[in-house]
């Protein structure tokens, strides 16, 4: 009697997610992935000393969605204990509301599957074919590694002061250069909404300041009265405005970042399954660097505008009230750019698989 082979039953902890375009993204068992890839993970390392650094980077990025989800769950529990129905300015919860976590998890799964395919294909090659392919894959990895090094050296770089129209035009051109049928409609819409309310708020502040100055000049003698109902109402309106600006700032950063992750997820799927015409993976990697750099600079620019608005509107607030809001916006702005950069690194195995698919199709008679 032929002995039965037991299949590992340890399931991947991450939930199955529905990908874009109606395609289901499925995950295999961890044991199966380890069996396929464990003996081949060192193939690239034999001739590439920097491979360990890339592997460490991948391990860091694949845990990003789990970290965000845990933070969101903790905030939910905290709010549940306080029995509040008010909308809160918690980045993780808002990021999830805009499907940022769903697209990030789908991108992580797609990246892991692509990594497994790369290792499996390398295990089938040997000799000159293996060396040639390894060189190609390492050249793609070096482009990504150079981008990561650039991020580490320029963490304090300020965002570009570009108009929304210029950013939208740049994204469209870069996506066209990738040769994928993707349009940044949702991302551009989120950016435009953020810029519109910032500009509207700045206009309102200018009008309020002018009215306040004029009223102060006309009613200088009346200011000595213990209470002025009109001034009291103005103070209430100003306090509410500061809170609204803070909420809108966090919400806008969460929405824009979620749309950036969604855009990169779409690009990953189209690179694997829907390119309009073939384009070398090395060239695509360079275009993706420009794309994510533009995203990060725009998010940094938004964060700066939000803090400027808070500083202007809250000029009459005490430092212990205003500073935590400003610091929170700055922190989430930095986190947003880091999330986009990490999502970019998840595209490395996707481009490597795409290169392998293209090479195989060219080799066929």
Q: What can you see in these coordinates?
A:
The chain is mainly α and 365 residues long. The protein has 12 helices and 2 strands. Helix content is 72%, strand content 1%. The chain has a two-stranded antiparallel sheet with strand order 1-2. Strand 1 (17-18) and strand 2 form a beta hairpin. Helix 5 runs parallel beside helix 9 and helix 5 (100-123) crosses helix 12 (348-363). It is elongated and about 70 Å long. The two termini are 44 Å apart.
Could you outline the blueprint of secondary structure elements for this entry?
Blueprint: E1 17-18, E2 24-25, H1 30-37, H2 51-61, H3 64-82, H4 91-97, H5 100-123, H6 128-153, H7 164-177, H8 185-218, H9 229-273, H10 281-313, H11 319-345, H12 348-363
Antiparallel strand pairs: 1-2
Helix pairs in contact: 3-4, 3-5, 4-9, 5-9, 5-12, 6-10, 6-12, 7-8, 7-10, 8-9, 8-10, 9-10, 9-11, 10-11, 10-12
């Amino acid at each position: 009697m032929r002995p039965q082979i037991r299949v590992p039953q340890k399931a991947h902890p991450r939930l199955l997610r529905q990908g874009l375009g109606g395609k289901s993204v499925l995950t295999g068992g961890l044991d199966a992935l380890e069996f396929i890839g464990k003996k081949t993970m060192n193939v690239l390392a034999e001739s590439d000393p920097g491979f360990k650094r890339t592997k460490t980077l991948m391990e860091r990025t694949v845990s990003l969605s789990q970290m965000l989800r845990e933070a969101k769950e903790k905030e939910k529990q905290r709010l549940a204990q306080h029995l509040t129905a008010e909308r809160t300015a918690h980045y993780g919860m808002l990021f999830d509301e805009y499907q940022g976590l769903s697209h990030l998890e789908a991108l992580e799964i797609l990246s892991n599957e692509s990594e497994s395919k790369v290792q499996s294909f390398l295990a089938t090659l040997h000799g000159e074919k293996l060396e040639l392919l390894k060189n190609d894959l390492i050249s793609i990895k070096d482009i990504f590694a150079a981008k990561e090094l650039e991020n580490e050296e320029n963490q304090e770089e300020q965002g570009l002061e570009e108009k929304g129209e210029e950013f939208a035009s740049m994204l469209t051109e870069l996506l066209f250069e990738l040769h994928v049928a993707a349009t940044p409609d949702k991302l551009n819409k989120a950016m435009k909404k953020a810029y519109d309310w910032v500009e509207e708020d700045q206009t309102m502040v200018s009008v309020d300041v002018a009215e306040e100055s004029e009223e102060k000049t006309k009613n200088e003698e009346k200011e000595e009265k213990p209470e002025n109902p009109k001034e009291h109402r103005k103070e209430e309106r100003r306090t509410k405005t500061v809170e609204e600006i803070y909420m809108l700032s966090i919400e806008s950063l969460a929405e824009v970042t979620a749309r950036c992750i969604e855009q990169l997820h779409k690009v990953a799927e189209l690179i694997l399954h829907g390119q309009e015409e073939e384009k070398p993976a090395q060239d695509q990697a360079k275009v993706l660097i420009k794309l994510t750099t533009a995203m990060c600079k725009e998010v940094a620019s938004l964060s700066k505008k939000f803090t400027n608005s808070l500083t202007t509107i809250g000029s009459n607030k005490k430092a212990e009230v205003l500073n935590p809001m400003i610091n929170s916006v700055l922190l989430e702005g930095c986190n947003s750019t880091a999330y986009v950069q990490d999502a970019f690194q998840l595209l490395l195995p996707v481009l490597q698989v795409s290169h392998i698919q293209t090479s195989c199709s060219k080799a066929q008679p």
